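Appendix B, example 12.
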Amino acid sequence: MHLTHESETDGAPAVVSRPEPGIAVVTLDRPQSRNALSLGMMAALQVAIDMLGHDADTAAIVLAANGPAFCAGHDLKELTRHRADPDAGRSFFRQTMDRCASLMQAIVKCPKPVIAAVEATATAAGCQLVATCDLAVAADTANFCTPGVNIGLFCSTPMVALSRNILRKRAMEMLLLGELIDANEAAQYGLINKAVPTDDVMEEALAYARRIVTKSPATVAIGKEAFYHQIELPLSDAYDYAVSVMVQNMLYSDAEEGIGAFLEKRKPEWKGC
């Protein structure tokens, strides 16, 4: 399935495929622009994430990319063209950043886990995209960077995802220096889960997805939502919230089935509720 948007003039910016039951792969497909997050690209990605999030046949989503870069961040050529607008580009800049924020939040809110398969460099908002995904596997040759400070544009929106995934000092180092870090450093920072040889990236991402497919979709969905909600709360409030989620989860048919299967030493049969 090819997903496009009226602002794109160079073909569909994203492609959805289904390599295995329960798994969908969303591929960024603007290699000629290093998969930059144009307005059309972001719109297409959000359509894909929203669609798959509501698809009963999808349990996990892999986010991949074609070309020499995973994602080079915002489309600076597109942004620059709008400096000629009557408002010097203000409204388009706002539209672009709002769309980016909406896309990143759609990934977080998606009830299906989203796994980044990063075979090449991810910079600026591309690095933000990787940080936003629930899991990430990268090629050991991949690099990551938030280089906005080098061109007079601090990576303020990438900062939101970055600062929620890695230690503050590491985040500030990336944001203030704007220098590349390699995949092994990214794994040490907690930006990605693991670095593997390039040829193994998609297989490792699919391996994560295959394991997720075996879990109760209802349990995964309530767990993902709870994770991102509680992490923003003070400790006491987080426990109060988690207790209510745990009680709600205990009442699910899948929890009853899963506990019963564990006690009876058999494989559970999920109902998805």
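The longest strand covers residues 58-65. The chain is about 45% helix and 20% strand.
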